[in-house]
Amino acid sequence: MSGHQSAQSAPRGSFFGGGIGVIWFDDFICTGHEESLLDCSHSGVKVHDCNHGEDASAVCSVSCPTLRSPNHGRLSTTDTDPGVSVRVVCDDGYTFDETTGDPSTVCRLTGSWSSTLGGCKEEVCPPYSQNISRNLLVSVEQGGGTAIGTVLRFSCSGNYHIHGEYTDTCVSPGVWSGPFPYCVPGENVICPPYSQNVSANVRVSVVTGRGTTLGTVLAFTCSGDNRIRGDGVISCLSSGVWNGTVPDCVSCSTLSVSPPLRANTTNVTEGTVVGFTCDSGYRLTGHGHLDCETSGHWSAGIPTCVKVTCPGLTTPANGRLSTGSTSAGTTVFVDCDQGYMFDPNTGHNITLCRSDGTWNATLGSCTSVSCVALPPPRNGKLSSSDTRPGTTVHVDCDDGYVFDPTTGGISVVCRVGGSWNSSLGGCKQAKCPELSKPAHGSLSTPTTTAGTKVSTECDDGYTFDSSTGDIAVTCRSNQTWGSTLGGCKEG
C-alpha cells in the first residue's frame, strides 16, 4: 500500500479514523515525492483487498532512510521521523559547499527526504592576485596559498609608499580581514605642520626625513623632571596624516618621605608609580602605591607607618614570661617555677610576634614535676609511692626472698627533671649453700630454699654422730643455715 512498510496491524470493524496513527486507504497511489498524503491520488473508498467483508484500515509506521554524515562535518540530528529537519554542520575550517546539494532537508510523511543534502569544503579566501594594484608587492608571511590563517605582507616598489595596512589575514569563513592597500608616489604626500601644537616644555627632533613629508619621524622629549604625556614618536603616513598627536609634558610635586616610611623612587614625572614600604616592626597605613596622574597630581595622599604590636600574653600559672614586650620581632618563652616543668601538651614554650601583629604560636603552661609511678616488684614491695623530685624509693622483699642486684638498683631517686636516676631491681627466692652428703648417710632433701629443714639420715650399721653437729638444720631467710649438719658413725 502506497509503497510503505508492511502494516503493523489490520483492525476489524473500524471506521475511517479509527485505530492509532495514520489511516491508509485501499488503492492509494503515491510517487514518493509528495509533500503530504493529500497530494497522493486514490480511487475513493472501495472494498478492501483483505476480504474481511467490510472497510479495513491499517496502522503503519513511517521513517525516512538514514542519512550519511558529510566528510569534514556532521548532521544536526540522526532522527528520521516524519517532519524532522536535518541540516549540515561543517567542522572548523570548513564551510558548506552549495554545489553539492542543499544545506538542510525535511523527512516527509511519505518516508522520503525533501532534498539531497550537500557536503563541506575547506574554507579558503579569494585569490589575492586579482586585488593587487600596480607597484604593490606581496609576500606570504605565514601559511600558504589562500588557506585560513594565511598572512600576506605588502610593500611598494620604487619611490612608492603603502596607503593602507601593511598586512592582511585570511579569516573564517574565507574572507580577507581588510581591503588590500595600494601604492602612492612619495613626493605627493605631505603631513600638516606640527610646530603649532608644541608646548614650551616639549623638545622635538627629526629622526628621519625632512619637514613634513612622507616617512618623516619626529621624537619628543621633556625638559627637567617633566614627563611625556602622549606619543613620544610620530611618523608621517602615506595617507598624509601623523600616526599620533604631539604630546605635552607634566610632572607631580616632590614627595616628602622619611623613615620608617620608604619609597622605591623619587621620580615625580607623569605616569610614575611610587611604591611605599615600612621598616621592620612597622605597618603601612594608607595607599601602598601612588600614581603621578596626567593632571600633574598624585592619586592619593602619602601613607604613614605605625608600630606593629601583638596582643598581650597571659603569664602562666607556676611560671613567668621571659619578657613583657609585644613589639614585632620580639621572642617570648615560658620559664617554669622550681618543682614545675613545661607541659608540651598545652602549647608551645616559645612564640614570636610577627610583622602582621600576630603571634606565630600559642604558649603553653607549667605543670607540677613528678616521676612516673613505679610498679611494685614481684615478691616484694616499695618503700614509698611518692613520685615528687628528691624522693628515694627502695625495694623491700617478702620473707623467703632477697633483692636481686642483677635486675637493677635496690633504690632510686626522683630527679628534678621528673625522671628516676636508675632502674629499680626486683626480688628472687632466698637459697642457702648446698650441703655436702654425709659419709655413710644421706640428706633428707636436696632443697636449699629459705625455710627448708634438712636432716641427716645414716645408712644401716651407722648411727648419727652428735659430736659432729646437729642432726637437722634450717635454711634462714638471710641465706645461711641455722647450724652445722652432723655426720654418721659406725655402730
From TrEMBL:
Do the record's keywords include Coiled coil? no
Q: Which organism is it from?
A: Geodia barretti
Provide the leader sequence positions. Answer: none
Q: Among its keywords, does the record have Membrane?
A: no
For this UniProt record, give its keywords in alphabetical order, as a comma-separated list.
Disulfide bond, Repeat, Signal, Sushi
Name the UniProt record assigns to this protein: p-selectin
- Origin superkingdom: Eukaryota
Domain (Sushi): give its ranges.
62-122, 123-185, 189-249, 250-307, 308-368, 369-429, 430-490
What positions does the domain SRCR occupy?
1-61
